Amino acid sequence: MLTIFGGIGLFLLGMTMLTNGLKEIAGDALKRWLNTFTKGRISAVVSGAVMTMLIQSSTATTLLTIGFVSAGLLTFIQSIGVIIGANIGSTSTGWLISLIGFKISLQTMALPIIGIGVFMSLIAPQDVKRFGNVVAGFGLLFLGIDTLQQGMGSAQDLIAFDSIPADSFISIFLLIIIGIVMTVIMQASSAAMAATLTALFAGAIDFEQAAYLVIGQNIGTTATALFAAIGASVSAKRTAITHLLFNVITALVVTIIFSYFVQFTKWLTILISGEFDQTLGIAIFHTLFSLLGALIFIPLIQPFANLLIKLVPERENVLTQDLDDSLTEMPSVAIEVSFKTMRDIMVELTTAQQLLMDSKKVTMEYEKKILKVEEAIEITRKFLDSIFVTSKREHQKLISILHTLDHLHRLIKVLREKQNVEAFYLQGKLMLDWQEMLSIINKRLNEDEKLMDISIILEETSQKVAQERREKRIQYFERSVANETQLDLAVSKVDALLWIDRLIYHYWRATARMAEFQSMNDE
C-alpha cells in the first residue's frame, strides 16, 4: 500500500508541476484565445476541451473560466459551455495513460525526462527555465504511473473489490461512493483515473467496477470547485454549481442506462483497436460519459443559466463580487478582474458625485455609495496584496492597477472633506463645469475604447483648473490686503479651489492609469 501512496504522490506532484508550468507559459495566450473562440455554444465547448487538454487540469480550466467571467471576458452562458468542454478535455489523461502508460517501460522513459526538466529549471536561460517544470512534471507523472503499477501488482490481495461486484444496487452505490472519495482525497480526478486504470491493468478490479469508479470520480472532481466557492464570488458559486449539476445529472443518466452504455463502449473499443483493450475501453467510457453530458446540456444552456442566476443572486457589495481569492493563483486573470473592479468603482464614484452635485448636500444615498466604495477599495487592496506576478508584462499591469487604487483612495479622502459642499457656494462656476464633465465621463466609462479619451479630457481640465487656482489664489489674497474682502472668506475660497484641484487631479490620474492598463492589453 505504501508503494501505491508513493505512486499517487509522484503522479500528483508531476501533474501539479505540469499544470502550473503550462498555465504560466500559456496564461495570456489562453485568455486571448478564450475571448476570441467562445462566441457560440459549440465554440465555447471546444475551447474548454482544448484548453483542458493543453493544461491537463479541468479544475484549472474551471478556475480560469471563473476569472474570465469575473473580468468580463466571458458571459456566464459562455462559461457553461467552457465547463462542459473542460469535462470532455479532462478525459485526455485516460487516453494518455491507456495508450502509452501500459505499453512501454515508464521508468526507463521517465527518469531521463525528469533529469532534463530539472536541469532546464536550474541552468537554462531565463526564457527556457519555465519549460523545465513542464518537462519534469511530465516525467514525474509517468514515474508515478510506473510506481502505481508496481504497487497494484502486489496489493491485489489487500484490496477487497471481490466483495463488491457490480451486480447489485448496493454494490453499484458503494463503487460510485469509492470513486467520489478517491477524487476528493487525491484532489485530482486525473490521479484517481490513473489509480483506477492501474488497478484494472493489474487485475485488481474488473471493467464494470472500473466504469462505476469513473462515474464516481466525475462527481468527485467537482469538490475542488465547491470548496473554492465557499465564501467566494457569485461567479465562483455559479460555476461550481454548474460543474456539480453537469456531472451529477450525467452520472444518473449513465447509471440508469449502464448496461447499454458499456455494450456501446466495448463495441467502439473493438472498432478502434481491433480487440477489447480494457484500459482503452475505460478511456473511451470516460469520453462518452462527458460527450453524453454535453449532448444533454448544450441545448439547455440558456434556461440552465437563468436557473442558476435565480439560485445564486448577487451579493450585497456588487463592486467586489468578482474578487475570488482562488483567482490569485492565476495572476493574469486576477489582474483582469481587478481592472474590471476598478472600472466599477469609478462608475460608482462618478454616480455618487453626480448625486452630490444635484442635491448640493450630503444625502443618505450619497453616503451609502461612498461607504460601498470605501469597502470595495479595502477588499480590492487585500486581493491585490495576494497576487504574485512573475512576468514583466503582468508586473507593469499590476503597477497600473495599484496606482489606480491609490488615486481612488485619495479621491475618497478628498470627497470626505468639508469643502465637498462649501465649494458649491464659493466656486459655483467651477463646480457647474465639473458637473457637466461628470455627465460626459459617466456616459463614456462603460465604453472600453473611451478610457484614453476620458484621460485626455481630464488632463486638460486638471491643468486648466490648476492654472486658475494659481491665478485666483493670488487675486484673493491681494483683494484681502486691499480690504476688498475678508481674509476668512479669501482663505475659504482658496481652500475650495485647492479641493476642486485635488478632486479633478486624482480623477484624472486614476483614469490615466486605467487607460495605461488598457493600452497594455491592446498590445
Largest sheet report: none
Number of strands: 0
Tally of DSSP helical segments: 22
Shape: elongated
Average pLDDT, all residues: 79
Helix content: over 70%
Beta-strand percent range: under 5%
Could you explain the architecture of this structure?
The longest helix has 36 residues, at 2-37. The relative contact order is 0.08. The chain is built from 22 helices and no strands. Helix 3 (58-70) runs parallel beside helix 16 (331-359), helix 4 crosses helix 12 (234-256) and helix 4 runs antiparallel to helix 14. It has helices spanning 2-37, 41-55, 58-70, 76-89, 92-101, 106-123, 126-155, 169-186, 189-202, 207-220, 223-229, 234-256, 258-273, 278-297, 301-311, 331-359, 364-385, 392-415, 419-426, 428-444, 451-481, 487-522.
Give a concise summary.
The protein is mostly helical and 523 residues long. It contains 22 helices and no strands.
Topology:
Elements: H1 2-37, H2 41-55, H3 58-70, H4 76-89, H5 92-101, H6 106-123, H7 126-155, H8 169-186, H9 189-202, H10 207-220, H11 223-229, H12 234-256, H13 258-273, H14 278-297, H15 301-311, H16 331-359, H17 364-385, H18 392-415, H19 419-426, H20 428-444, H21 451-481, H22 487-522
Helix pairs in contact: 1-2, 1-7, 1-9, 2-4, 3-4, 3-12, 3-16, 4-12, 4-14, 5-9, 5-14, 6-7, 7-9, 8-9, 8-10, 9-10, 10-12, 10-14, 11-12, 12-14, 13-14, 16-17, 16-18, 16-20, 17-18, 18-22, 19-20, 19-22, 21-22
